[in-house]
Amino acid sequence: MKAEILDKLQDARRARRPVALVTDLGSGAQALLESGRVIGDDALAADALAAAMKMLDRDETGTVEAGSRRLFVHVHNPPSRLIIVGAVHIAQALAPMASLMGYAVTIVDPRRAFATDARFPTVTLSDDWPDEAMQRLDPDRRTAVVTLTHDPKLDDPALTVALRSPAFYVGSLGSKRTHAKRLERLRAAGLTDAELARIHGPVGLNINAISPAEIAVSILGQITEVRRRDAK
Amino acid sequence: MTEALPFDSGSDDVLATAAAWKAEGRKVALATVVTTWGSSPRPEGSQLAIDETGAFVGSVSGGCIEGAVIKEGLAAMKDGRHRLLDFGVSDEQAWEVGLACGGKVQVFVERVE
User: Fold this and answer.
1) ipTM tops 0.90
2) Which of A24, A80, A88, A89 is deepest in the core (most CB within 10 A)?
C-alpha cells in the first residue's frame, strides 16, 4: 500500500466520509473510491468501478469479479451510531460497552445534573430536548436509538422521531405495563401500528439481567441480533 | 478527553497503528482477510498490522494462522512483493497451518510503502 493511499484513507475515516479501498488481488494495484471519484494508480475498468460503488452503498466488504480480475473492495463507512436518551445509571454501562463494539455514542438528556462530562467522559452529550436533538441527529439506517428515562416527557418525543426514521433499531426501557401505557399514548398522538410495532419493548434480550451492566449487555445483545440478522 | 479515531466492525484501529508505526520510521506490513468460506472466525476486511520486529495489532483469525501471516508479512517487508495466502483445513491445503474450526480464509499481505 502506498503511503499516499493510506494517508488519504485515514483522512476520510477521520472525517467520517464513506470510502472504499479497491485492491486488484492479482497485480496488487490499489485505488481509493470516494464520492464517485477514483484516486490511485489503478485505472479501474468501468464495470469494476460500478461494482465497487454498489458495495460501498450496501456497506459490504468483499471480493468482486471484473473480467479476468479479482478485486477486493474494502468498505470503510463511518461508525454506526447509538443514540441513548437518558443519561441514567444504565447509560453509564451502555455507552462504554457500545463504544467497544465500534458505535459512535451520543447521549441526549436535557437534565443538566445527569448529562455531565464527569459521568460520561468519552461520549458526545446533548442537552437539547429529545425531539430537537433527534431531529438534529437525524437517525439513518446505521443508527440505533434506545430510550432509558421512563419519563414520557423525554422518551415519547424521542420515540416519535425515531419511529419515523430509518433507524435499524428502536428500543425503550420499561416494564410490560409501562410499555403498554407508552403504546397507548403514542397511538393517541398519531403513530401508526406499523410504526409502534418497531419498538423493542421491554428493551433487550431476556437474560434475567438485574444490574445496569447486565441490562446493557441484554440491550446490546438485541441490537446485535437485529443488526446482523440480514448478514447471516 | 482524547478523541479516539472512529472505527467500525469493532476491531482495534489497525490502520491508525500502521500509519503511526510508518510515521515513526518502522517497516510495516498489512494483512487483510479478503475471502472467507464456512465458519471462519473473522470477517472479510479484518486486518493485522506487523512491524519489522514481528510486533502486531489486530487479527485475521482466532489466533490459528497469525504466526504464519506474520512470517509472510516480514518477508513482504523485505522483498516488497504482495502475497495472497490460502489457509484451510490442514490436510487439504498446501499450507501446514490450518484453521481448527474448519473454515477457509484467503489473506492478502502487502508492504506499506
Assistant:
1) no
2) A80
Say which CATH number the domain at A133 has: 3.40.50.720
Residue of A nearest to B112 (CA): A1
Residues A104 and A172 in one domain: yes
Are A13 and A99 contained in the same domain? no
Domain extents in chain B: 14-112
Q: Quick one: closest CA in A to B11, which residue?
A: A102
Contact A13 B15 (CB under 8 A): yes
Contact A80 B8 (CB under 8 A): yes
Q: pLDDT per position in chain A (232 positions), as tens?
A: 988 899 999 999 988 889 999 999 998 989 898 887 887 765 666 767 778 888 888 888 999 988 888 999 999 988 899 999 999 999 999 999 999 998 999 999 999 888 888 888 879 999 999 999 999 999 998 999 999 999 999 999 999 999 999 999 999 999 999 999 999 999 999 999 999 999 999 999 999 999 999 999 999 999 999 998 866 5
CA angle A93, A230, A199 (to 5 degrees): 50
Using the Cβ of A25 and the Cβ atoms of chain B, whether some distance falls under 8 Å is answered with yes
As a whole number of angstroms, the distance between CA A69 and CA A64 comes to: 8
Assess whether A138 and A194 both reside in one domain: yes
Q: Which residues pair with A107 in a beta bridge?
A: A84, A125
Cell of A81: 451510531
Measured in angstroms, the CA of A122 and the nearest CA of chain B are apart by: 7
Q: Are residues A115 and A172 located together in one domain of the fold?
A: yes
Which residue range is the domain that position A71 belongs to? Answer: 3-76
Give the HSE-up count for residue A17: Cα atoms under 13 Å, Cβ half-sphere: 14
Contact A135, A157 (CB under 8 A): no
Q: Which long-range contacts (CB under 8 A, 24 or more apart) does B86-92 make?
A: B87/B61, B88/B37
